[in-house]
Amino acid sequence: MPSVAILAVEGCYVSCAAGFADVLQAANAHLRHRQGPDGRPFEWRFLSAGGGPVAASNGMRFETQPLRWRPRFDAVVIPAIHYPGFKPFVRFLDRQTATYDWLRAQWNAGAWIAANCTGTFVLAQSGLLDGRAATTTWWLDRQFRSRYPKVDVQFRSALTEADRLVCAGATATYLLQAVRMVDRFMGPTIASQCAKSMLIDVSHTGQIPYLPLLAETEHADSLVERAQDWLQKHMARDITMSDLARAVAASDRTLLRRFGAATGRTPLGYLQALRLQAARALLEAGDMPVQSIATQVGYSDASSFSRLFRQCMGLSPGAYRRRFQSPAPP
Q1: Residue 144 in contact with residue 124, Cβ under 8 Å?
Q2: What angle (nearest 5°) sits at the alpha carbon of residue 34, between those of residues 14 and 22?
Q3: What is the CATH number assigned to the segment(s) 222-324?
Q4: What letter does residue 251 receive in the DSSP assignment?
Q5: pLDDT value of position 66
Q6: Residues in the chain, pLDDT under 50
Q7: What CA–CA distances, in Å, run from 114 to 2, 169, 177?
Q8: C-alpha to C-alpha distance for 287 and 108, rounded to whole angstroms
Q9: 142: part of which helix (H) or strand (E)?
Q10: Residue 13 CA to its chain's centroid (Å)
C-alpha cells in the first residue's frame, strides 16, 4: 500500500497537514467501494525531525514519529508553515538541516514530494528544486525568487509538477495537490470521485485571479503620491503620459523616473492595474454589463478590454464574475 509521510513541523497549518490526510482517507473509502479487499489503500504517518508532540500554528498538537521511523516512503507531504516574518522564517529554515538530508534521501529512493505554500521554501532549501519548475504562494514570490534563484518559479500556476516534485501555491491549494497525489497512486477515477465527493474544484489551476493588482508600496515621494491620486480620480479618461505630467507640474522624464523608483511601475502600467482592479470590483459586486464596466474604467472598446482582462487575469470577465461574484442577500 502507498505509504505517505506528512511532516508536522513546528508552526505548520493543521488544515494542510490533517486535511491532506483527510483526502487520502476519502480516497481509501472510494477505493474500497470499487475494488474491495483487492485495493491498495494509502497509509500515512505524521513525522517530525525528533518525533514526539509538535505544536501547530494554531496551538493544536500533533503526535509524531521521528524521521527515521521508516527508511522509505512512497510520498512525502510538506504542509504550509506559519510565516512570522522573513528573518525569523529564515532562522527556522536554517535549523532544518536533518530534514533536508532526509528529503533528499527519500526522493533519491523514488518518493514523490509534495510541498504547499510556505512549505515550498523547505523543499527549495533542500536543493531538490534547483533547475526545476515550481510554484509558491503568490505573496512570497519575490522572497522565494531572491533566495532560490536556480528554481524555475511559475507563480501564476496553482500547481506544478516536475520529476516527482509537486508544488502548490497559497494554503488551500493543498486540496488540489492531494487530489493530484491520489491520481498518481490510485488513478484518475478515484481522484475524480474524491474531488467530487469533497467539492474540490480541480479547475482552479492559477493563482492570478486571486492576486491584488496593486500591492501597497510605501514611499515618501510627494510628486508620485499626487500622480497616483490624480490617476485614481481620472482613470476613466483617455490619459497620456504628458497629461499626467502636466497635471502634477513635472516633466515626462522626471515623473517616469521617480514613479518607477517609488512604485516599481511605469505610470501607465500603474493606470492599467488601477483600471483592472476597479473592473474586478465591479464584476464581483453586481450585474453591470461588461461594456458598461469597460467604459466606466476607461476602455471604449469592450472587446479590447475583455482581451486585456483575460491576458492579465487568466479568466474572461464573465468567467471571473461567475467565480467571484458576491452572493445576493437572502
Answers
A1: yes
A2: 5
A3: 1.10.10.60
A4: -
A5: 96
A6: none
A7: 14, 11, 7
A8: 53
A9: helix 141-147
A10: 15
From the list 290, 313, 288, 315, the residue with the least C-alpha distance to 302 is: 290
d(CA 300, CA 244): 20
* Nearest-angstrom CA–CA distance, 40 and 111: 17
Give dist(CA 276, CA 296) in Å, integer.
Answer: 11
Return the CATH superfamily for domain 3-210. Class I glutamine amidotransferase (GATase) domain (3.40.50.880)
* Distance in angstroms (rounded) separating the CA atoms of residues 122 and 17: 15
pLDDT at 174: 94
CB proximity list for 178: less than 8 A, separation 6 or greater: 19, 20, 23, 24, 114
Q: Using one digit for the tens of pLDDT, what is the confidence trace for 234-275?
A: 998 999 999 999 999 999 999 999 999 998 889 999 999 899
Position 68: which residue type? R
- Terminus-to-terminus CA distance in the chain, angstroms? 48
Q: What is residue 209's predicted lDDT score, i.e. its pLDDT?
A: 66
Distance, in Å, from the CA atom of 104 to the CA atom of 109, rounded to the nearest integer, reads 9
